[in-house]
Each structure stands twice: as C-alpha cells, then as structure tokens.
Amino acid sequence: MHIGRTLPPAASPIYPQDIISGLRGLIRGQREIERFQDELREFFGVNHCFLLSSGKAALTIILQALKDIHPNRDEVLIPAFTCYSVPSAIVRAGLKVKLCDINADTLDFDFDQLSKILSQYSQPNKTDKLNKPNKPNEPYELSAKNYELSSCSPLLAIIPTHLFGLTADINRLRELIDDPEVFIVEDAAQVMGGEWNGITLGTLGDVGFFSLGRGKALSTVEGGIILTNRNDIAERIVSQISILSGYGFFGLMELFLKAISLAIFLHPTFFWFPKILHFLKLGETIYDPYFKIKKMSLFQAGLAMNWQNKLRRFKDIRAKCSKQWSTFIKNLNNCQLSSISYQPNSNIIRFPVKLNNGALKSKLLGNNKHINFGIMPSYPDSISSIEELSSSFQDIDFPVAKEIAQQFITLPTHPFVSNSDKTRITNFILKIIAP
Ligand SMILES: *Cc1c(COP(=O)(O)O)cnc(C)c1O
C-alpha cells in the first residue's frame, strides 16, 4: 500500500472553525436548528424544511409520510442505476422497489421504458409484466386482488435522481405521469447548490432531499435535508419526525470525533491513513436498510454555519475543475473515453468519464495507483443485482444500468485537488491510453 499524497474521490472539507461552530451550536440550543432551517427555506424559496441524520433517513421519512397520504399504495419507482441508499430507504419505509432502466447519455430515466411502465400502471391487469411482488414467497394473486379492491394504481412515488450533478428532466417526467396521485420525490442528494435553468435543484419535485454526507456537495459529517412546498406532505413529515429521537451523548461524541477525523484525514496528505485502516467506511457502497434515523443534532446544525459561502466556493471550484476535465477528455479525441455533457451551473461532486473499453478500465484501475489520484469506479452494479433484492427482478434485465456500472469511472473535482494533482492525473491517463 502506497503511503503518501492520496486524493479522496469526493470530499467536502470540514474546517476547524466549523467544528468550533458545531460546539457553539450545542450551547445555543434549538435556535441553531431554527437558524439553519430558516436559512435553507429562504435560500431555496420553499415553505418547509426538515433536518435529519442522513439523506437516506430523509428519504425514509418522506416515503413514510407519502404512505400516510396514500396507505393503499406501496411501490416506488427508481432508476436501475443509483446509490444503494435509495433502495435501502424504500425497504426501510416498508415499500417495494420498482426499477426503470436509464439512458446512457443522460443517466436519467429511459423515458421510453418509463412511459411503458407507467401505462401498465394505468392498466391494472397488465401490471404483473414488469412489476412482480418484491418478496418471492408472497403470492402475487393476493396483491393483485388487494389492488383491485383498492381500485387504484399501487405506484406511490417516482424518484428522479440527479446523478453526479447531471440534471434529471423532471418537467418531462411530470408530463408523462397522468396519475395525479403519484408523487415525485427529487433525489438531489448529490447536487445541493446546483441549478437548472435558474431553478435550484431540490425544489423541482413535490418533495426533495439533499445529503450532507462526507462526499457530498456540503458536509456536516452526516445529515439530510428535506424541502417541500406542499403543506399536506409537510404535515405528515412533522408527525413522522415528532416520534424520532435525537442523538444521545455517545452519538454526539461519535459525530464530534468523526468531524475531527474528517478535518484531518480528508486532506490528501493524510488520506492514505484512513484508506489503510478502512476507517470511516470510506468509499463503500452498501445496501443496508437498518440505518439509524434521527433528528439532526445541534452540533451538525452548528457545523453548517456559513454553509452558503462554503457551498458557493466549493461549487465554483468543482465547476472549474469539471470544465478542465471535460476539455481534457474532449481534446484527447480518443474513442475509448468520453464525458457526458452537463448543464451549466451544476454542482459536480465527481466527474464521470465513460470508458468504452474494458481493457482500458482494467489498466486504469488495475494496480492501486488510481486510488492515489481519487479515480474510482462508480456504483458497482445495477440495483437489480443487489443480492437481497435480486429475487424481485429475476426475469427482468436492466442492460444499460449494468453497462453504465461497468463503464463509468469518476475523476475528483473537490477543493483538495491541486493543479499539480491535475497534471499528475492527466499524465497518468495519457500514459495508460498511449498505444
Ligand atoms: C448519498 C446519496 C443518498 C443518501 O444519502 P446519505 O446521506 O448517504 O444517506 C441518496 N441518493 C443519492 C443519489 C446519493 O448519492
């Protein structure tokens, strides 16, 4: 294992002064949470904002609130290529995961397939084609019967996702859905601060959420934000949240120690160390529905003091870096590598590069050198291949999602990437693609 300068694949710096404001937050009490909520509501121009322990906790609370509104609906449709936390949250909320393949050029839904799936939802007797029950031992006749009894579609929500800062086309999605009861939950976990045609992402769906996890656009060690303008959804979320507990003493200690570790070890000079120790579960993508769901702590709200300046600064840095990667890949003019075009003003936390050649991928990721450069594969496989879920998708293929999981790597864009890192990374890639 190499010891020396190592870039994280994605990072949002936490500074010592943030940790001091975190501790001040503990002293300021509930006002700290209200301050953060007020600032978020104003910045994003929404009526309601809620703060939780993570993005997946936020999504679970959203889904439970939606289920409260439509108790006879239990299916949630997501892209077949996304973060494993998304199906984890759906299962945690007691709902069923349904998948739609993605488009290789946009990483958004494959809209042809999506419209087919949606039309099957509106013709109840055909729903068994693409949508089998999640648990194999649950007789499908039963759910079909329930479905007739309730005389409505089982589809509760669709989760369009802005992956790697690429914008999902939510207007197009809205036009396609003719059942007005289906909710659009905007997964803006990775793109806090990103915009689309002047509209801030996270506010395009009926309800949206951000993650404040370690590798996201902004970080409070862990954390999740829910935004919505809909009073009916907000009301249910309030009652969901009212029964949650906050962080206890040991939970707060853990947050505090993680904040200090991140302030030190995210820095490329020290990042090899947690890599060696497999510390903080860095770089893992796991399916696990048994995560904690808590209200955000005063410490995290305090850590987020000055978030607007940080977010703006990080976004500018990432935008500049993404542009450089984009130009570099374009100028290579090599058919083995390509990048995806993205909206101006997006917030790209990892720059995705498509490799059209498996041999090239093994060369790039073959020895451990890529780790030092923060070059990483994206999610390991399609959601349909997650072992715990795969039985529900046995007869259905999601070829694009599988292909994308195989083909994509990401380059780092975060504030720790220095100019000499960029030179080293370009030289590394040039050397590997050299004939
Ligand atoms: C990170 C992420 C989540 C979950 O957020 P956590 O804070 O890690 O729980 C959900 N969706 C996407 C697309 C993500 O990248």
Account of the protein in words:
The chain is 43% helix and 12% strand. The protein contains 17 helices and 13 strands. Strand 2, helix 4 and strand 3 (96-100) form a beta-alpha-beta unit. Strands 1-9-8-5-4-2-3 form a seven-stranded mixed beta sheet, sandwiched between helices. The protein starts with 15 loop residues before the first helix and ends with a helix. The protein is globular, with a radius of gyration of 21 Å. It is of the alpha/beta class and 435 residues long. Helix 3 (55-69) crosses helix 4 and helix 3 (55-69) packs across helix 8. The structure holds pyridoxal-5'-phosphate (PLP).
Question: Which helices and strands occur, and which strands form pairs?
Answer:
Layout: H1 16-28, H2 30-44, E1 48-52, H3 55-69, E2 75-79, H4 85-92, E3 96-100, H5 111-122, H6 140-150, E4 155-158, H7 170-176, E5 183-187, E6 195-196, E7 199-200, E8 207-211, E9 224-228, H8 231-242, H9 249-265, H10 272-277, H11 298-303, H12 307-332, E10 337-339, E11 350-355, H13 358-366, H14 369-372, E12 376-377, H15 387-390, H16 399-407, E13 408-412, H17 419-433
Parallel strand pairs: 2-3, 2-4, 4-5, 5-8
Antiparallel strand pairs: 1-9, 6-7, 8-9, 10-11, 11-13, 12-13
Helix pairs in contact: 3-4, 3-8
The structure holds pyridoxal-5'-phosphate.
Pyridoxal-5'-phosphate (PLP) is lined by residues 54-56, 82-83, 85-86, 161, 187, 189-190, 211, 213, 224.
